[in-house]
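Comment thread on ticket #2218

A.B. wrote:
> Attaching the input chain for the structure job we discussed in standup.
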Amino acid sequence: MLIRPMLATDIEVVEQLEQQLFSSPWNSSRLQKALTGQHWMWISEVVEVDKAVSAGDRPSPLSSARRVVCGYLIASYGGGVADLLSIAVAADFQRQGIARQLLKALIEQLSSQQVESLFLEVRRSNHSAIALYQQCQLQQVGIRKGYYPSVQGREDAVVMRYGPRQD
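C.D. wrote:
> Ran it. Output below, let me know if you need it in another format.
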């Protein structure tokens, strides 16, 4: 797996993933605007080998390989603070540690850029994401009532923070 900066050519696939994974997805205009702003935007890619022409565990000389976007991360930053705006992994690639690797890359970026804190909101019902964030040393610091739209009306967000001074 490779983590690299998001490019304008990635906008279409990221928009498709947003639509597949989120009830309030980012559109191409918003993604394009973020690319030109003060954001960290990364893509996670894997190389897939066409299994139809591979021999056992080794690709044959005739096999073809292609890079596939399997996840992405978008965070804004400024004034010593960063906000994780979106992190997602395509359904076929979930539960393989990709989100964890993206998040760890962001945490490394924080220290190299002297950013003191990272904040994020996550749906209260998203237990697997909350567990991932806790494993990566983020702590709950609050609740935003009715933050997310949902089928039942509104859903609370858990506010989480990563930083050197965890109160």
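A.B. wrote:
> Thanks. Noting for the ticket: The chain has four helices and seven strands.
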